[in-house]
Design brief:
Strands 14-15-16-17-18 form a 5-stranded antiparallel sheet. Helix content is 40%, strand content 14%. The protein binds fe (ii) ion. The site of fe (ii) ion (FE2) has 6 residues, from helix 17 and helix 26.
C-alpha cells in the first residue's frame, strides 16, 4: 500500500505545483538543522518513523487498500481520504445515549458532518483558496454502538492534481450535539500524511452557524502564511476574539478580558459585597470575561453563577472527562458541594477546639464521624480522603500528611521550621538580611512609627561569636519578612470574629552545616499609642514558658506564611498572573503560530481552574476567606502584593533569587549564579529545570526567528505581548520594568518565564499543600488568639494549660477539617496529568521534524534532571533534604503517579 502511495505520489508530483512548495520546506529545514545542531541522520530516521506511526495504529488500520485508487492518467483528479478521530465519553448517561441515537438517525437522512479540504494555494482563476469537494464522515450511524474511547471515521475527497498541500479543513456539524474532535489525518498526497491535531469540541451548526476551521500541524509565522490560508487565519482569530458583548454561552469559544467584579454577591447583603479587583483603585490582573448581567444592588458587580452550575470558560478550556470525574476538580467539586456542607452540619453545633494533639491524629486513624449521611454519589468521587458510609452516618478519614510520615515530631522542632523556608511548600520568601534591624517600606505618615523592635542583643548570642555586622558581611543572616504584607490590614483582620494575626519577621542564622536556625521572631501590631506594646520580639526558649511562647510565635509566623503563600505566591503570581497571557495568546496568535504551539501545553486547563476558584475558593465567604486568617481581606492582600511587589521581569528563577539576595551572579557556576545558601533545595533543583527550559525555548525561538527584525515584524506575536501587558495587566501597563520584545533573546526570556511559572514554579507551590499543611499545627492557615503578655487576663489560662491555649489559638475542628479536605484535593494529580517534557501527540504536534527532535532532546534532559534530584535526596551532605527523618525534596521532581504524591511538575496550572 505504501509503495502504491509513493508511486502515486510521485506521479502526481511531476505534474503538480507542490514540487516548488516542498523545496521551500526542505531548504527551511536545512537551515534549521544547522541552527539546532541536530544530526541530520537522526532527523531522517525520526521523520521516517514519524510518518510510519502517524495517526496511531488504529488510524492506519482504518485506511483501506483502495485508498488511492488509481485514476486514469488522463483525468487530473484523484482521491484522498481523511481519517478522523473522535473521542467518546467513557461514561454515558441516559441523556447522552438518547442524543447519540438521535444524531445517528439524523445522520442517515443527511444531517451529517461535512468536511472540505482547503489548499495552501490560491486558485489563480477564482483568486480563492483551492478546495476539494465537500465530503461527509462515513458510517456515523453504524459506529454508534462502538464502545471504544476513540472512534475513527473516514471521508473521501476528490481533488485536482494541482491542488497543492492541504493546509486547512473546514467542518460543519449538522448533528444536534457537539462532539470532541481529537485529530484528522489526510492520506493520499504525495507529501505523505498531513496531520491536523484538533483537540476541540465541534458544536452543532444550530448553535454555531459558521464552519469550523482546523489547520494542519505545519507552523507558519504570519508573514509566511501560505496565500490559501491567510484569510482563514484571520477569520478564525476574529471569531475567537468575539465582539466583547453579551453573555457568554457555555458552548462559545470566545476569549476576552474582564475585571474581578464577580467575587462578591452584594444582593445577598453587605457582608457579601467585595471590592472590585482590577482598575485604578485596586490594580489586579484581568480574568476571562463571562458577560453576565450586573447584580441588582451594584451595577458594577457582575452577578454570580453559584455552584453547582458551571462558570463560563471557552468550550475547549473545560476539563476533559477524566479530570472532571473522579479526580482533582471532580473531587474538588464534591468537596465543595457535598463534603463541606456535611462537615458544617455535623460540626457547627459543636464548633470546638481540638482537645489534644491526639484529636488531630484521630482524623487520620479513626476518622471523623459525620452526623449527616453523604450521598452515594459522593462516595465515588472521594476516594481520598476516604469516606466510609455507615447507614445514615459517614466516617471521614484523612490520609496521614507527609510531614508526619517519617518523623511525627519534626514539625515542632526549629530545624524543621527553618528547613521548610527553603524546602517546604513556600520556599520563595526567604531573603538575605542586609540591614539590621530590618526596615519597613511602608509610609510612616499612614502607618505610624515603623522602627523594628529587633535589637542586636536579641540575636548576638546565636551568631557563633560573630558580631551582627560580621554575620551580615559573611552572608550568614537571612530573614522571612511578612511585616509589610500584613501590617496595613491588621486592624481590620483583628477586628474580625475569631481571627488574630501579627505582622511577623523571622531572622535565621546559616550554620556551618548548611542548615538554617531561627534565632528571633518579631511580632508587630499596628502602633496604638506612645506606650503601646505593639511590637515584641520572641527568642528561642530557655524554659517551659518561653518554649510555649516560642511555639506560639512560630505558629503565627507559619500562619502569615500560609496566607502569603496562598494569596500571593500561589494564587496571584502563578494562577492569576498567567491568565492574561493565555487569553491574549488565544485571541492574537493563530493555532498555526509556532509560539502558540510552544505555549499550548502550558495553558491547558488554567482558565477552568481559575474560574472554579472565582466561584468557590476566592469568592466572598468562599473557602479561602473562611480558612485563612485575613478572612474577607484575603484578596485585598493579594491585590496589594500585585501593586507593591509583582514585577514580570523578576518572575524568572535567577532574577528572583538575585532580588532576594540569596544568589549572586557568578559566571564560573553552571547556571551563572552562586547560591548563598548552598543547599537550598527549591533553588538548586529549580535552576536545573530553569536551564533546561531556557535551552529548549532558545532552540525553538532561534529556529523561527533568526533576526530581531523577524520578531519585530511578527504582528501576531507583537499583538499577543502588547495585549497581555496593556489589556491583561492594564493597571500596571505603564510600569517601566516591562521587558521589551524586540529580539529573539527578549522572546526567549519572556517565554521561559511564562513556561517556568506555569510548570515548575506552580508545582513547587502547589503539590506540597496537603503534605505540609494537612497537619494544621505545622502550618496553621488561621490563628484565633494572640500571645498573652504577663499580667493579661488570658496569661493565667495560658500558664495553667498551655497545650489547651495553643490548640485554642489554632483553627477549630471545623475550620481545620474543611481546610484539610480542600488542600488534599488541590494537591492531587489527575490520571491524565501531562508532565514537563511530555506532550500530547508527541510526534505530530508540529509539522517541523527538527522541532520534534529538539523536543525529544529536552525530554531526555528532564529525565536526567529527575535522576539528579534523586541523587541529591540521597546525599547525606545535603542536610536540608537528607538525614534522620528528613523529608526528601521532590516538589520539583518532574514525574509523578496520580494522587497526592508531593512531587511531579505538570506542564500547566490545572489545579
Ligand atoms: Fe494551583
Amino acid at each position: 500500500m505504501s509503495l502504491a502511495k509513493e508511486i502515486m505520489g510521485y506521479s502526481v508530483i511531476e505534474r503538480s505545483s507542490f514540487v516548488s512548495t516542498s523545496k521551500v520546506i526542505l531548504s527551511h529545514n536545512r537551515q534549521a538543522k544547522q541552527k539546532l545542531g541536530v544530526n541530520p541522520a537522526l532527523i531522517h530516521q525520526r521523520r521516517v518513523s514519524l510518518r510510519k506511526g502517524s495517526g496511531g495504529p488504529a488510524a492506519v488500520a482504518a485506511i483501506s487498500e483502495d485508498l488511492v485508487k488509481a485514476v486514469p492518467e488522463s483525468v487530473v483528479k484523484f482521491k484522498v481520504r481523511a481519517v478522523v478521530t473522535v473521542r467518546q465519553k467513557s461514561k454515558e448517561d441516559l441523556k447522552d445515549t438518547i442524543a447519540k441515537h438521535w444524531d445517528a438517525l439524523a445522520d442517515r437522512i443527511g444531517r451529517n458532518v461535512v468536511l472540505q479540504l482547503v489548499s495552501t494555494e490560491i486558485d489563480p482563476k477564482t483568486r480563492a483558496p483551492k478546495k476539494s469537494n465537500e465530503a461527509v464522515l462515513k458510517d456515523w450511524s453504524k459506529k454508534t454502538q462502538v464502545k471504544a474511547e476513540r472512534v475513527h471515521y473516514t471521508a473521501e475527497f476528490t481533488v485536482d492534481s494541482n491542488f497543492g498541500i492541504p493546509g486547512a479543513i473546514t467542518m460543519t456539524n449538522k448533528h444536534r450535539n457537539e462532539f470532541f474532535l481529537e485529530s484528522m489525518t489526510i492520506e493520499g498526497f504525495a507529501c505523505g500524511p498531513v496531520h491536523f491535531p484538533c483537540n476541540s469540541w465541534v458544536q452543532s451548526k444550530k448553535d454555531h452557524p459558521g464552519k469550523r476551521i482546523f489547520f494542519s500541524n505545519k507552523p507558519y509565522l504570519p508573514s509566511e502564511t501560505p496565500a490559501g490560508l491567510k484569510a482563514m487565519r484571520e477569520e478564525e482569530l476574529r471569531y475567537l476574539r468575539g465582539d466583547g458583548k453579551g453573555e457568554r454561552k457555555l458552548s462559545d469559544r470566545i476569549y476576552d478580558f474582564d475585571i474581578y467584579n464577580d467575587l462578591g454577591n452584594p444582593d445577598k447583603g453587605i457582608d457579601f459585597a467585595r471590592p472590585t479587583l482590577g482598575g485604578s483603585k485596586i490594580p489586579y490582573p484581568r480574568r476571562c470575561r463571562t458577560g453576565r448581567a450586573p447584580t441588582y444592588t451594584d451595577i458594577n458587580a457582575e452577578s454570580r453563577v453559584e455552584k453547582p452550575l458551571p462558570m463560563y470558560v471557552p468550550r475547549d478550556e473545560q476539563f476533559e472527562e477524566s479530570k472532571q470525574d473522579t479526580f482533582s476538580t471532580g473531587r474538588l467539586k464534591a468537596v465543595l458541594h457535598n463534603l463541606i456542607p456535611s462537615l458544617k452540619a455535623s460540626l457547627s453545633a459543636n464548633n470546638h477546639d481540638f482537645n489534644g494533639f491526639s484529636d488531630i491524629d484521630s482524623l487520620y486513624k479513626e476518622g471523623l464521624l459525620l452526623k449527616v449521611g453523604l450521598q452515594d454519589e459522593l462516595l465515588k468521587k472521594l476516594p481520598l480522603p476516604k469516606v466510609v458510609q455507615e447507614s445514615s452516618q459517614g466516617l471521614l478519614k484523612y490520609d496521614t500528611p507527609k510531614i508526619l510520615s517519617k518523623d511525627r515530631f519534626a514539625w515542632i522542632r526549629d530545624d524543621e521550621f527553618a528547613r521548610q523556608a527553603i524546602a517546604g511548600v513556600n520556599p520563595v520568601n526567604i531573603e538575605r538580611l542586609t540591614v539590621f534591624p530590618p526596615k519597613s517600606n511602608l509610609d510612616p505618615e499612614v502607618y505610624g512609627p515603623l522602627e523594628s523592635a529587633l535589637k542586636e542583643e536579641h540575636i548576638l548570642g546565636h551568631l557563633n561569636g560573630m558580631s551582627v555586622q560580621q554575620a551580615i558581611d559573611e552572608n550568614k543572616l537571612f530573614i522571612v519578612d511578612y511585616h509589610d504584607a500584613y501590617l496595613p490590614f491588621l486592624d481590620r483582620i483583628n477586628a474580625l470574629d475569631g481571627r488574630k494575626a501579627y505582622a511577623t519577621r523571622t531572622i535565621y542564622f546559616l550554620t556551618s552545616r548548611g542548615t538554617l536556625k531561627p534565632i528571633a521572631i518579631e511580632l508587630s501590631l499596628p502602633p496604638q499609642g506612645p506606650s503601646s506594646r505593639s511590637k515584641r520580639v520572641v527568642t528561642p526558649p530557655v524554659d517551659a514558658t518561653s518554649n510555649w511562647m516560642w511555639q506560639l510565635a512560630k505558629a503565627h509566623v507559619n500562619s502569615n506564611c500560609a496566607g502569603v503563600h496562598q494569596l500571593v505566591n500561589h494564587w496571584l503570581r502563578t494562577h492569576a498572573c498567567m491568565e492574561p497571557f493565555i487569553l491574549a495568546a488565544h485571541r492574537q496568535m493563530s493555532a498555526m503560530h509556532p509560539i502558540f504551539k510552544l505555549l499550548d501545553p502550558h495553558m491547558r486547563y488554567t482558565l477552568e481552574i481559575n474560574a472554579l476558584a472565582r466561584q468557590s475558593l476566592i469568592s466572598a465567604d468562599g473557602v479561602i476567606e473562611s480558612c485563612f486568617t485575613p478572612g474577607r481581606y484575603c484578596m485585598e492582600i493579594s491585590a496589594a502584593a500585585y501593586t507593591n511587589f509583582w514585577r514580570f521581569d523578576k518572575e524568572d528563577l535567577p532574577s528572583d533569587l538575585i532580588r532576594r539576595g540569596v544568589a549572586v551572579p557568578d559566571s564560573t557556576q553552571p547556571h551563572g549564579l552562586r547560591l548563598l545558601i548552598e543547599d537550598y533545595p527549591y533553588a538548586s533543583d529549580g535552576l536545573l529545570i530553569w536551564s533546561a527550559l531556557e535551552n529548549w525555548v532558545r532552540s525553538y525561538v532561534n529556529y523561527y526567528y533568526p533576526t530581531p527584525a523577524v520578531v519585530c515584524n511578527d504582528q501576531e506575536l507583537q499583538a499577543w505581548y502588547t495585549e497581555s501587558v496593556n489589556v491583561g495587566h492594564a493597571d500596571i501597563r505603564h510600569a517601566d520594568w516591562w521587558p521589551k520584545l524586540a529580539s529573539p533573546e527578549d522572546l526567549v526570556s519572556i517565554l521561559t518565564k511564562i513556561i517556568w511559572l506555569a510548570s515548575a514554579q506552580h508545582a513547587a507551590l502547589n503539590f506540597g499543600q496537603y503534605p505540609y499543611g494537612g497537619f494544621v499545627p505545622n502550618r496553621p492557615p488561621l490563628m484565633r488568639r494572640l500571645i498573652p503578655f504577663e499580667g493579661d487576663p488570658e496569661y493565667t489560662n495560658f500558664v495553667s494549660d498551655p497545650q489547651k491555649y495553643y490548640l485554642s489559638a489554632l483553627p477549630s475542628l471545623l475550620q481545620a477539617t474543611k481546610f484539610m479536605a480542600v488542600v488534599d484535593t488541590l494537591s492531587t494529580h489527575s490520571p491524565d496529568e501531562e508532565y514537563i517534557g511530555e506532550r500530547q501527540q508527541p510526534s505530530i504536534w508540529t509539522g517541523d521534524a527538527e522541532i520534534v527532535e529538539a523536543f525529544y532532546e529536552f525530554s531526555a534532559e528532564i529525565r536526567q534532571i529527575e535522576k539528579e534530584i534523586e541523587r541529591r535526596n540521597n546525599d547525606p551532605t545535603l542536610r536540608n533534604r537528607c538525614g534522620a527523618g528528613v523529608l526528601p525534596y521532590e516538589l520539583l521532581a518532574p514525574s509523578s503517579e496520580p494522587g497526592v504524591t508531593c512531587r511531579g511538575v505538570p506542564n500547566s496550572i490545572s489545579i
